[in-house]
Design brief:
Blueprint: E1 2-6, H1 10-21, E2 25-29, H2 33-40, H3 51-60, E3 64-67, H4 70-76, E4 79-82, H5 97-108, E5 114-118, H6 126-135, E6 142-146, H7 156-161, E7 166-169, H8 173-183, E8 193-196, H9 198-229, H10 233-241, H11 262-275, H12 281-304, E9 313-317, H13 332-342, E10 346-350, H14 355-362, E11 367-368, H15 372-376, E12 381-384, H16 396-402, E13 407-410, H17 417-422, E14 426-428
Parallel strand pairs: 1-2, 1-4, 2-3, 4-5, 5-6, 7-8, 9-10, 9-12, 10-11, 12-13, 13-14
Helix pairs in contact: 1-3, 5-6, 9-10, 9-11, 9-12, 12-13
């Protein structure tokens, strides 16, 4: 099939690369020429395992190309994916100006029937507005469908190539048939294509992400209660997860959720509920708990140092909001580092992939270490903020020798408290009283 993907950010690159991998001819469009030049040189704006090789292979096979010429790309394709950003507005709503600008451009360059696909996460009713904008520009037949993405950062390529399910929101049999044909190669194992009306598909993405965010906030609230009453949050989690009705995922206590999806989608759904005079107290509570979780971690540090951390140096392990990505949007590390700096502390930080992005956020306010152990050298304590694999089994004897004092604040509950106590560490985690 002939496909155009408008927007070459995280979602657009994954969509374009994976669709081209199945033999489709895909044109990725972006108005940032510098970004396009970098991509064509093999330098991607995002880190995602396997994505760089997928792009390289399909560019070499002439199935995938990049351009800033949106007119030719629209005219050349039957299916057009809109994968531009939908940043959060001041009121929590999704800012759809880029989506609408693209819709206007598509309408201006229509030359034959097209299926226009909303791939960006957008509120209910967006497809209707996109269709209205396109219709104001052309009399040529087209359909707008909703095809929300469910890509986990750090596993996005696998998620797209081997999806649990594909959601197609369509009010047109013609468009539905085309979309089912497009996704057929990805679903040979029998996982379903779920066809529904457009508004239900738009709502599904927000409902799914918000439910997972609520689970995380619930796990954190239970962990905080465990810590106060003397229970062990990890044991409680294991006991809960053994119930098949509950499951095991998204119930790990820690520093709360971050990234480009959960915080934004929860707020957007809250705003939608308010727009339609619906109660959203559960979602609002999840958002509040998530914000508090980072400050509770700060409180652990302040309590240990009797509220005086001026000139203390903290080694930060992990800056990205989760492992296997360089994304720092809404990352707990930003809040925690800024709060430590505000109180006069010094920061030495290390992350395997998020360094360059961190420099645009913190500039020269912190020290960027060449590796994890370099960050520890001469620091007063270590703070684990992102659970990268390389942090899972460190050399604790080496850690102890490098730190001024054997103190670890673990925001991801990665380590065995008993083992660290036996080695002489003061160890603080989430949901368990210090031993």
């Amino acid at each position: 099939m002939r496909i155009t993907v408008i927007g070459s950010g995280y979602v657009g690159l994954v969509v374009g690369a994976c669709l081209s991998e199945m033999g489709n001819n895909v044109i990725c469009v972006d108005n940032n020429k510098d970004k396009l030049n970098s991509i064509q040189k093999g330098v991607l704006p995002v880190y995602e395992p396997g994505l760089d090789e997928l792009i390289k292979t399909n560019v070499c096979e002439s199935r995938l190309s990049f351009t800033d010429d949106i007119e030719s790309a629209v005219k050349a394709s039957k299916i057009i994916f809109i994968a531009v950003g939908t940043p959060q507005g001041e009121d929590g709503s999704a800012d759809l100006k880029y989506v609408y600008q693209v819709a206007d451009t598509i309408g201006s360059f229509m030359n034959e029937y097209k299926v226009v696909v909303d791939k960006s996460t957008v509120p209910v009713g967006t497809a209707d507005k996109v269709a209205e904008i396109i219709r104001s520009k052309t009399n040529i037949e087209f359909d707008v469908v909703s095809n929300p993405e469910f890509l986990k950062q750090g596993a996005a390529v696998d998620d797209f190539l081997k999806p649990d399910r594909v959601i197609i929101g369509s009010n047109s049999k013609k468009a539905t048939d085309i979309m089912q044909e497009l996704y057929a190669p990805f679903l040979r194992t029998g996982n379903p294509v779920i066809v529904m009306d457009v508004k239900s598909a738009e709502m599904t993405k927000y409902a799914a992400n918000s439910f997972l965010a609520v689970k995380i906030s619930y796990a954190n609230e239970i962990a905080n209660i465990c810590e106060k009453v003397g229970a062990d949050a990890e044991m409680v989690r294991i006991g809960m997860c053994s119930d098949k009705r509950i499951g095991t995922q998204f119930l790990f206590p820690g520093l709360g959720y971050g990234g480009s999806c959960f915080p934004k989608d929860v707020k957007a759904l809250i705003k939608t509920a308010k727009d339609f005079n619906c109660d959203s107290s559960l979602l609002e509570s999840a958002d509040i708990v998530n914000k508090k979780q980072r400050m509770l971690f700060i409180d652990k540090i302040l309590n240990y140092y009797d509220n005086d951390i001026k000139d203390k140096t903290f080694a930060i392990w992990g800056l990205a909001f989760k492992p296997k990505t360089n994304d720092m949007r809404e990352a707990p590390s930003i809040t925690i580092i800024n709060e430590l700096l505000k109180r006069g502390a010094k920061i030495k930080a290390y992350d395997p992939k998020a360094f360059e992005l961190a420099k645009t956020i913190f500039n020269d306010k912190i020290t960027y270490s060449k590796n994890a152990y370099d960050a520890l050298n001469g620091s007063d304590a270590m703070c684990l903020l992102t659970e990268w694999n390389e942090f899972r089994r460190p050399d604790f004897d080496k850690i102890k020798s490098l730190l001024k004092a054997p103190v670890i604040f673990d925001g991801r509950n990665q380590y065995d408290a008993n083992r660290l106590k036996s080695k002489g560490f003061n160890y603080f985690c989430v949901g368990k009283q210090p031993l």
